[in-house]
Structures are given as C-alpha cells and as structure tokens.
Design goal:
The protein has helices spanning about 55-65, 90-100; strands at about 1-15, 25-40, 45-50, 70-75, 85-90. It is elongated, with a radius of gyration of 17 Å. It contains 2 helices and 5 strands; from the N terminus they run βββαββα. Helix content is about 20%, strand content about 50%. The N and C termini lie close together (about 10 Å). Strands 3-4-5 form a 3-stranded antiparallel beta sheet, with helices on one face. Strands 1-2 form a two-stranded antiparallel ribbon.
C-alpha cells in the first residue's frame, strides 16, 4: 500500500452582507488534501500535473505554499470512485517510490 495526499475541492458555506444590511448565504470552494492508501497493483500511470486555468491556479496558491508539486495518479479497476487522482508530490518522487517497491 502507498500512502498519498489526495487533493480535492471542498465546498463551504459563506455568509455575505448586502448593501442594505441583509445577509445571504453563498457557497465557495477551495482545495484541501486528505491522506489515503492506494493499492500499488492498481496504479496504471503517474503524470506531473500543471494547472492551466487561472482560477484554479489562484485557488491552489491560496491553499498550498508556493513551489508545491502535484501529480496525477491514474488507477485501474471498476469502482465507484474516479480513476484519476490529483495528489501532492512531484512526479520524480513517485517514480522513485514505485521503482523501489517493484
């Protein structure tokens, strides 16, 4: 098993105030990470991940320190979860880890 930090968008509630003083509820998202275990036998590919959207880049810089590297982990198998995971860590780091374990 391989322990990784999965990056996902979490939705949270915000309360804002209008000019007349009334409040309204809105929702925003931000990137957070959570620890998870991955069975190495199901890893199909690992790719370095680069954000292309300016909005996504802005959210990432708000949530993680500058210079944080991300990778995309592609898993095989039929499951209810998605097969691509965005994870914390550089492509080179995961290459070293996977080469050691095989």
């Amino acid at each position: 098993m391989l322990k990784v930090s999965e990056v996902y968008e979490k939705q949270y509630k915000t309360t804002n105030e209008r000019h007349d003083g009334t409040e309204y509820v809105g929702y925003a998202t931000r990137f957070v990470s959570r620890e998870c275990l991955i069975n190495e036998d199901y890893i199909v590919a690992v790719h370095p991940h680069h954000f292309t959207s300016d909005i996504t880049k802005e959210k990432i810089t708000e949530s993680f320190p500058d210079g944080t590297k991300f990778s995309t982990l592609i898993l095989d198998g039929n499951s209810f979860r998605k097969s691509e995971l965005l994870i914390l860590g550089s492509f080179e780091k995961f290459c070293e880890i996977l080469e050691k374990n095989k």
